Amino acid sequence: MRAQFVLSEIGVGLRRNLTMTFAVIVSVALSLGLFGASLLMRDQVSTMKGYWYDKVNVSIFFCNKNDADSGANCAKGAATQQQKNDIKAELARLPIVQKVEYESSDQAYKHYKEQFGDTPVAGLVTPDQLPESFRVKLKDPTKFAVIKSAFSERPGVQEVQDQRDTVEPLFNLLNGMNIAALVVMALMLVVALMLIVNTVRVSAFSRRRETGIMRLVGASSFYIQMPFILEAAIAGLLGAAFACVLIVGGKYVLINNWLAKKIQVINFIGWDSVAAVLPLVLLIGLLMPALAAFFALRKYLKV
């Protein structure tokens, strides 16, 4: 009998405040959708970092005959074979080095043509202008400073370059977008909480006579508050369900059917990442409105 009464009160409350309830659902859906998207974007950035950092190398470029005026290291002209052998031997002794590969000027020119073959700048470079280099694969890509400090001032070395510098701006951009999404999500959550509090306040005010009678006949505070809390929880859960639909739809349409086909060099997150986020979104959608309603009732439910 009590459960039937509580359910009937929930239905009455939702019907009386239909517009505000709908606003709560939409606000919760958008805010939790952004929350889930932010978590997935963070996983995507971590996945991309692991993928690209595992592939990038440290490049030790040697002086060639055109670099005599480019710095003190190249003042004596092109690097000698003995200098290259000494550097390779030292690299082999370093515990942080996993693999060392030699790239000749002709190989560098071939890679250059593969990258810029269809562009106007392709004919501006000749093989003798591209330096020889060692491509150093590190066990830990963050240890680039060790290689740079050890070899950047060596005679015959034109430059020590960390290829992570070419992909770092992309990761910084993605991290910035993630922070922006979190800020918007926080603002949306504040709006949703304000709507929930106002909805509970209006609902409690419209039913103050019924709650007063319940208090007179001995109903407990928790029993009186339960319909209002469940109304907010149901609205929040519906919003969280819509947020899950947005997240799944975004993964299927935006990533699987568009980005994955347009950008094939990126290892995008899978459905396992989405499946890990959805329960958290549903849990927050259920608990956040219920707790907001509980604390709002302590102030506004005066019977």
Automatic annotation (TrEMBL):
Membrane-spanning parts? 21-41, 179-200, 221-254, 274-297
Stretches of the chain forming a coiled coil according to its record: none
Q: What's a Pfam family in this record?
A: FtsX
This protein's source sits in the domain of life called Bacteria
Tell whether Cell membrane is among the UniProt keywords. yes
Q: Which residues form the ABC3 transporter permease C-terminal domain?
A: 183-299
- Alphabetical UniProt keywords: Cell cycle, Cell division, Cell membrane, Membrane, Transmembrane, Transmembrane helix
Instruction: Please list the GO biological process terms of this entry.
Output: cell division
Q: Where, subcellularly, is it found?
A: Cell membrane
Look up keyword Membrane and say if it applies: yes
Please tell me where this protein is predominantly located. Answer: membrane
Q: Where is the FtsX extracellular domain?
A: 56-160
Gene3D superfamilies reported for this sequence: 3.30.70.3040
Matches recorded under InterPro entries? ABC3_permease_C, FtsX, FtsX_actino, FtsX_ECD
Q: How does it sit in the membrane?
A: Multi-pass membrane protein
Q: How does it assemble?
A: Forms a membrane-associated complex with FtsE.
Its job: Part of the ABC transporter FtsEX involved in cellular division.
Query: Which family does the record assign?
Result: Belongs to the ABC-4 integral membrane protein family. FtsX subfamily.
Q: What is this protein called?
A: Cell division protein FtsX
